[in-house]
Amino acid sequence: MFHILKNYIDRNFNLLSFIAVVFCFVPLFYFSTNYVLNGWAYSDALINYSEGFIRRGLLGEIIFSIHKVTNLDIQKIHAYIFIVFTIINIFLYVLILKNISNIRFVYIFLLFNPLLLFFPLNDTGGYLRKEIIILTLMIFHCYLCNKYHSDKLSLSKYFLIFKTLIIPGIIINTLIHDIQLFLIPFHFILTLNVINKDFKILSYKNTFNKKNIILLFYIFTTIPFFIFILYPVSPEKINLIIKNVLLADPQVFSAPIKHVSNPFLGAVKNNTTFMFSKDELGTYNHLFEYSFLLVFSVGTIYLIFNKILNKHILIFNHSLVYLSIIPLFLLFLIGRDWGRWIHLISWAYLLFYLQFNFSKIEKKYQLIKNKFLNIILVLICFSFLIVISLPHCCKQQTIFEGFYKNILLSYNLLINNSKHINDTFREIN
Questions:
Q1: Most CB within 10 Å of its CB: which of 2, 134, 199, 304?
Q2: Are 183 and 138 in contact (CB under 8 A)?
Q3: Nearest-5° angle of CA 313, CA 316, CA 322?
Q4: Helix%, strand%, coil% for the chain, nearest 5
Q5: Residue 299 burial (CB < 10 Å; 0-12/13-18/19+)?
Q6: How far is CA 129 from CA 37, 179, 257, 323, 416, in A?
Q7: What is the C-alpha separation between 414 and 206, in angstroms, rounded?
């Protein structure tokens, strides 16, 4: 019986992994369709073009357009959009990780890591954020490149999808949230590795010859950003948009919408001053905690792909990974949501490695030859998965309020103290 069960799990491991992850998200999906989990993110999503073209307005325009056609509640439309993108991300990510499914420990660690896919489960303030749509394009592009490097996708088909989906997707995402601008180098590096697949060392001549002129497509993706700079939105227009949004939902926060018109230098000054200041205890613990999480995240990914999987993967140029993530560090100066930026950096760093071809791994790889130390390492990593969390922003929780606490909270909300739900989240009418 046990042998039959083991064979079934081995045959369907990736499908079962997908189901398990989706199951973990079910409570979050349920709460998001019945309550406003994140008032700031919800309000930010409703920025629209009712008073003309402005930055971050595309998603809100889509939500209100669907509302007009279907007459569905805008909160539920908002929730359904993020549920769809979350499931897509889980599906694509599991497909990519299939290449290393035989190394079960690494597979599970990357799948359930609180700094990656499970980020919104550790802090609901990180859910319903627009970058989940940006992340979808990142994971899809990585999946596409992996197929090419594995000789399962031709160069011509890659370029076709690149021109019809990747480039338009970047432009669309920039209209949803300008964070996409900082991830253009990530996509550029992925395409660069596709074009220069046969080159071990890149050169100016190899990179910018006639064959590689397609890289210039990335210049066009920056056009929306320069339009926003040349034609900034006025406070008067923002106030009119707020009035229109409040007619649809009187409980919407105005602050996220007003944020669109904030001067760039002013945002840098305010957010850096806040995050580099002392906390309520008069210490700089939040700086040390976020720094620890950043180093731990990048460090573990580095160890996995350079020490554990180094014999199973052909990486063309290790240095290019830093070119793809360095622009993201500017986000620490622009916004105080440091957890969100670490989340994006972790994804960009990981997906850089996952783009490449993995040789077939026949046996489960032993991390350390010493079995005792191997067990200790596994226990430490699983403790990290359960205990460690990544707060999305603003010193609102400690890094030791991990997944276990959210399980207890869900239990208390659903079983022991259901009345507390309305105090925690605003119910959708």
A1: 134
A2: yes
A3: 105
A4: 70, 0, 30
A5: exposed
A6: 11, 11, 14, 25, 29
A7: 60
Distance (Å, whole) CA 35 – CA 427: 4
Tokens at 394, concatenated: 């603003």
Is residue 427 within a helix (H) or strand (E), and if so which, with residue range?
strand 426-427
Residue 125 has pLDDT above 50, yes or no: yes
* CA within 13 Å, CB half, 155: 11
Count up the domains in the chain and report the number: 1
Q: 321 near 310, Cβ under 8 Å?
A: no
CA–CA dist 311, 289 (Å, integer): 33
Phi-psi region of 128 (alpha: psi -120 to 50; beta: other; left: phi over 0): left
What token pair was written down for 26? 């079910």
Contact assessment for residue 185 and residue 345, using Cβ atoms and an 8 Å cutoff: no
Asked if pLDDT for residue 370 goes beyond 60, the answer is: no
> Tokens representing 40?
């700031």
R_g of the chain, CA atoms, integer Å: 22
36 DSSP β-pair partners = 426
Q: How many CA atoms lie within 13 A of 181 on its CB side?
A: 17
pLDDT at residue 306, as a whole number: 80
Taking the C-alpha atoms of residue 354 and residue 285, their distance in angstroms, rounded to an integer, is: 33
The helix or strand, by DSSP H or E, that contains position 88, with its residue range, turns out to be: helix 74-97
Residue 144 has pLDDT above 70, yes or no: yes
Which residues lie closer than 8 Å to 252 by C-beta, 6 or more apart? 39, 42, 43, 46, 242, 245, 246
Q: Take residue 359 and report the two structure tokens written for it.
A: 């040789």
Q: Give the N- to C-terminal CA distance of the chain in Å, as an integer.
A: 50
**From the CB of residue 134, how many other CB atoms can be counted at a distance below 10 Å?**
23
Domain of 146 in residue numbering reads as 2-427
Contacts of 231 (CB under 8 A, 6+ apart): 53
pTM of the prediction? 0.87
